[in-house]
Structure formats: structure tokens, C-alpha cells
From TrEMBL:
Cofactor: Mg(2+)
Activity regulation annotation text: Allosterically activated by GTP.
Family assignment from sequence similarity: Belongs to the UPRTase family.
Function of the molecule: Catalyzes the conversion of uracil and 5-phospho-alpha-D-ribose 1-diphosphate (PRPP) to UMP and diphosphate.
Annotated InterPro entries: PRTase-like, PRTase_dom, Upp_B, UPRT, UPRTase/APRTase
UniProt organism field: Peloplasma aerotolerans
Residues annotated as binding 5-phospho-alpha-D-ribose 1-diphosphate: R78, R103, D130, P131, M132, L133, A134, T135, A136, G137, S138, D199
Name the UniProt record assigns to this protein: Uracil phosphoribosyltransferase
Keyword Transmembrane helix: no
UniProt enzyme class: transferase
Lineage: superkingdom: Bacteria
The keyword Transferase belongs to this UniProt entry's keyword annotation: yes
């Protein structure tokens, strides 16, 4: 069964307070989303495997440890883009794929319009990035697509989730671990997370 990790950390809570506040403007919202992306990355990577390598320090030879697998960050467009820089700052060797999809406002079903991945995705650890885990329709569809392309080691990374989204993602993709900055109470009748932070894509890109 997949692991569900809710990051209980004072720094993340502090930044989430800014992100959730409706008075926070686009610039500060975007910066805070990216920063939480970076902070979450320490927890996501905690159990990454490393491989030994011999190097020479200025003093002597020693065995050091490097990440064993290539990391691929795959944001779900648009809102996932907001977390990419923060994660990439921590793992600068990561490659970046993209999945373009949006949630139909009436049916809440994911509509796919784009995907592009690096060639070695099969052997990589893939971080699917999307700030909002609401119905989980978007996350499940993105992971379906990644699996069709051969990815096997996949982790979901988001800001805010709800029990409905976690249940569905666990059922449809039991081998995908879930990392969230916060777990909220429920979805409203329009499929928005409560208390949530509103429409993340609109707040990141000022399109409201
Ligand atoms: C938002 C969000 C997720 C999706 C979550 O994207 O970024 O992708 O909704 O909802 P779900 O769990 O019910 O699928 P949106 O469709 O608003 O597109 P955008 O990122 O282009 O704004
Ligand atoms: N997408 C968002 O941007 N916010 C929500 O609360 C749910 C889906």
C-alpha cells in the first residue's frame, strides 16, 4: 500500500499560511508555492537509494554517495509548474517532463492536451507534481499516462489534499506514495478543497 506523508513542519505551516490567505498577491503566492516545493523535497527524497563512488578530496581518497537513479520532475500543467523551481533547486540534476491537462469545470473530468517526457523515464524516479489533490482525477490520469510510458517508480507531490482525493489515488495507484504539505477536511459541491486555497492555477498566473 502507498505511503501518505503529510509534512508537519513549522516552516511549511508558516508558508502555507501565506499561500492560503486570500489577500496574498500573485508574486508572494508564486514565491511561497515554489519555496514549499523545495522544503517538501527533503522529505520526498529521504529514502532515495544512493550508490558509492570513490573520489579524492584535497586530503585523501574517500567513498562518497550519489543518488542511484535519475530523478524526473513531471508537473501537471498549469499549476504544477509553480512547484518545479523549488524542487529543481534542491535536485538540479533532475530532468523535467510535462503533462498538460485541465479539469473540466462541469464534469470535473481531466482533459489531456499535452505530454512530453525524457527518454529514460522507465529507470527514473518520477515526481508527479500538482499542488491540489481534489477529486484526484487529474493525478490518476497523469499517473496512468506515466505508467503507459513505462514509469514504475512514481511519487505524487502536492500542497493540499483531502480525504476523497487520497482515497481515490490510493485505490487506483496503490504503489504511488503521496506527499502533501497539508491535509484538509473535504471537497465542496464544486469540487474545491475546503478550506483549501482557491484555484491554484489562477492564483499563480493571475488569471482570475
Ligand atoms: C487544478 C489543479 C489540479 C486539479 C485538481 O487544475 O492544479 O490539476 O485542478 O483537481 P482534481 O484532483 O479534482 O482533478 P485545473 O484543472 O484548475 O487546471 P490549471 O492547473 O490549468 O489551472
Ligand atoms: N483545483 C484547485 O486549483 N483548487 C481546488 O481547491 C481544487 C482543484
Amino acid at each position: 500500500m502507498n505511503k501518505v506523508v503529510i509534512l508537519n513542519h513549522p516552516l511549511i505551516d508558516h508558508k502555507m499560511a501565506k499561500i492560503r490567505d486570500k489577500r496574498t498577491g500573485t508574486k508572494e503566492f508564486r514565491e511561497s508555492v515554489s519555496e514549499v516545493g523545495g522544503l517538501i523535497t527533503y522529505e520526498i527524497t529521504r529514502d532515495f537509494k544512493t550508490k558509492p563512488k570513490t573520489i579524492e578530496t584535497p586530503i585523501c581518497e574517500m567513498i562518497v554517495h550519489e543518488l542511484e537513479k535519475q530523478v524526473v520532475i513531471v508537473p501537471i500543467l498549469r499549476a504544477g509548474l509553480g512547484m518545479v523551481d523549488g524542487i529543481h533547486n534542491i535536485i538540479p540534476t533532475a530532468k523535467i517532463g510535462h503533462i498538460g491537462l485541465y479539469r473540466d469545470e462541469e464534469t470535473l473530468q481531466p482533459q489531456v492536451y499535452y505530454s512530453k517526457f525524457p527518454k529514460d523515464i522507465k529507470d527514473s524516479v518520477v515526481l508527479v507534481v500538482d499542488p491540489m489533490l481534489a477529486t484526484a482525477g487529474s493525478a490518476c490520469k497523469a499517473i496512468d499516462i506515466l505508467k503507459e510510458h513505462g514509469a514504475t517508480d512514481i511519487r505524487y507531490v502536492g500542497l493540499v489534499g483531502c480525504p476523497e482525493g487520497i482515497d481515490r489515488l490510493q485505490k487506483e495507484h496503490p504503489n504511488v506514495s503521496i506527499y502533501l504539505a497539508a491535509l484538509d477536511t473535504h471537497l465542496d459541491e464544486n469540487g474545491y478543497i475546503v478550506p483549501g486555497l482557491g484555484d491554484c492555477g489562477d492564483r499563480l498566473f493571475g488569471t482570475k
